[in-house]
C-alpha cells in the first residue's frame, strides 16, 4: 500500500518505522519545520524527518495546510504535492498541524489518525498527560478515520492498556507508541483485505485533553496527596512539576502517597529516615526524586546531601 505519513515527534516516528518495516511504501512524509533546540538553539529535524532522511523518503515541511490561513502560498504548494503524489491513504500521528477538509479529501482511502486514548475519553493535544493526571486506570490507542472535527471521526480499531501505578507520561508514551505502531500496521492490512469496519464514537464520555502549559507545573499542596502524585507523574518529563522551598524552585520528578496519617500543616516538611515528606490538604507525599536549578535529577537521599532543609521548612 502506498502511504503518505504526517507526524512530527518520537511517538509518530515509532509508527512510521512500523509501517516501513511492514513493507508498505511510504511515498512522502509531512512533518513540521525544523525547530531550534539545545544550548546553541540550532535547528534540528523532527524524529519523523530524521527517520525519513535515513530511509531516503521524500519530506515536505509546510508551515500550514490551510488555504485560507496566514500562509496560503505554502499551503497551495503542499496541496499540489499531495495531489501529485500517487498514494492510497494518509496516516497521521501527532503531526501538530490542522488538516483542513481540502486535505482530508485527497487520499483515496482517507486519512487515518493514531490517537493515544480510548476515544472519546480524551480528545485533543495531550491525551496521555490528562489520562494520568485524572487517575484513569486504563488508556489505549484508537485508530480513527479523520473528519473535520477534533478527534471526532469514526473508529476503526481500538485496544486498551492498563496505566501502571508508577507510569509517568514518559513511560506510558513509549508503551502507547509501540502499540500504535502495531495497530496501524494491522489497520492497513485490514484495509487491503477489505475486512475493516468503522464505528461512530459514543456521544457520552467526551473530555478535552488541553495542551500542557508550563504554568500548570506549580504544585498546590492544599490539594489531596493523591491528586498531586498523579500530577507529578503526568508532568514527567514535561513540564516537570515544581514547588518553591526556601526561595528555590525545585523540580519534583517522582513522589508517592504516604499511607500513614501525618500530623503537620499543609506544605510543612517532615524529615524521616532519609525521606522527605510534605503534608498536603489531604494526606502526605513522600518526594522520591528532585532537582535544584542547574543540578541533576537525584533520589531524595542524594539530593539532601547538597540541599539543606529543616523539619520546620515549608513549601511556598
TrEMBL record:
Quick one: a GO cellular component term? cytosol
Q: Indicate the secretion signal residues.
A: none
The gene it comes from is: fmt
Formyl transferase N-terminal domain sequence ranges: 1-187
Known function: Attaches a formyl group to the free amino group of methionyl-tRNA(fMet). The formyl group appears to play a dual role in the initiator identity of N-formylmethionyl-tRNA by promoting its recognition by IF2 and preventing the misappropriation of this tRNA by the elongation apparatus.
Q: Which reaction is the catalytic activity of this chain?
A: L-methionyl-tRNA(fMet) + (6R)-10-formyltetrahydrofolate = N-formyl-L-methionyl-tRNA(fMet) + (6S)-5,6,7,8-tetrahydrofolate + H(+)
**Which domain of life does this protein belong to?**
Bacteria
InterPro entries, sorted:
Fmt (IPR005794), Formyl_trans_C (IPR005793), Formyl_trans_C_sf (IPR037022), Formyl_transf_N (IPR002376), Formyl_transf_N_sf (IPR036477), Formyl_transferase-like_C_sf (IPR011034), Met-tRNA-FMT_C (IPR044135), Met-tRNA-FMT_N (IPR041711)
Q: Which UniProt keywords apply?
A: Protein biosynthesis, Transferase
Q: Which residues form the Formyl transferase C-terminal domain?
A: 211-307
Binding-site residues, (6S)-5,6,7,8-tetrahydrofolate: 117-120
User: What family is reported?
Assistant: Belongs to the Fmt family.
Q: Name one GO molecular function term.
A: methionyl-tRNA formyltransferase activity
Q: What is its EC number?
A: 2.1.2.9
Protein name (database record): Methionyl-tRNA formyltransferase
NCBIfam families found in the cross-reference section: fmt
Q: Keyword Hydrolase, does the record have it?
A: no
Question: Per the record's keyword annotation, is Protein biosynthesis included, yes or no?
Answer: yes
Amino acid at each position: 500500500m502506498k502511504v503518505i505519513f504526517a507526524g512530527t515527534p518520537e511517538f509518530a516516528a515509532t509508527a512510521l518505522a512500523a509501517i516501513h518495516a511492514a513493507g508498505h511504501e511510504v511515498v512522502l512524509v509531512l512533518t513540521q519545520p525544523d525547530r531550534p533546540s539545545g544550548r546553541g538553539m540550532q535547528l534540528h529535524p523532527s524524529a519523523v524527518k530524521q527517520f525519513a532522511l535515513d530511509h531516503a523518503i521524500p519530506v515536505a515541511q509546510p508551515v500550514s495546510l490551510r488555504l485560507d490561513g496566514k500562509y496560503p502560498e505554502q499551503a497551495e504548494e503542499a496541496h499540489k504535492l499531495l495531489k501529485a503524489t500517487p498514494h492510497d491513504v494518509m496516516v497521521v500521528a501527532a503531526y501538530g498541524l490542522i488538516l483542513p477538509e481540502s486535505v482530508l479529501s485527497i487520499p483515496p482511502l482517507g486519512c487515518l489518525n493514531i490517537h493515544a486514548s480510548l476515544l472519546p475519553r480524551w480528545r485533543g493535544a495531550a491525551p496521555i498527560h490528562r489520562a494520568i493526571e485524572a487517575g484513569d486506570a486504563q488508556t489505549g490507542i484508537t485508530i480513527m478515520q479523520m473528519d473535520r472535527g477534533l478527534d471526532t471521526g469514526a473508529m476503526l480499531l481500538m485496544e486498551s492498556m492498563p496505566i501502571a501505578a508508577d507510569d509517568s507520561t514518559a513511560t506510558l508514551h513509549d508503551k502507547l507508541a509501540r502499540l500504535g505502531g502495531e495497530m496501524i500496521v494491522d489497520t492497513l492490512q485490514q484495509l487491503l483485505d477489505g475486512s475493516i469496519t468503522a464505528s461512530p464514537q459514543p456521544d457520552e464520555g467526551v473530555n478535552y485533553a488541553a495542551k500542557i502549559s508550563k504554568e500548570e507545573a506549580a504544585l498546590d499542596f492544599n490539594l489531596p496527596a493523591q491528586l498531586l502524585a498523579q500530577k507529578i507523574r503526568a508532568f514527567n518529563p514535561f513540564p516537570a512539576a515544581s514547588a518553591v522551598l526556601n526561595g528555590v524552585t525545585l523540580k519534583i520528578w517522582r513522589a508517592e502517597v504516604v499511607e500513614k496519617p501525618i500530623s503537620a500543616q499543609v506544605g510543612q516538611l517532615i524529615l524521616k529516615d532519609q525521606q522527605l515528606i510534605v503534608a498536603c490538604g489531604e494526606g502526605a507525599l513522600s518526594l522520591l526524586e528532585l532537582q535544584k536549578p542547574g543540578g541533576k535529577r537525584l533520589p531524595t537521599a542524594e539530593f539532601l546531601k547538597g540541599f539543606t532543609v529543616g523539619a520546620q521548612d515549608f513549601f511556598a
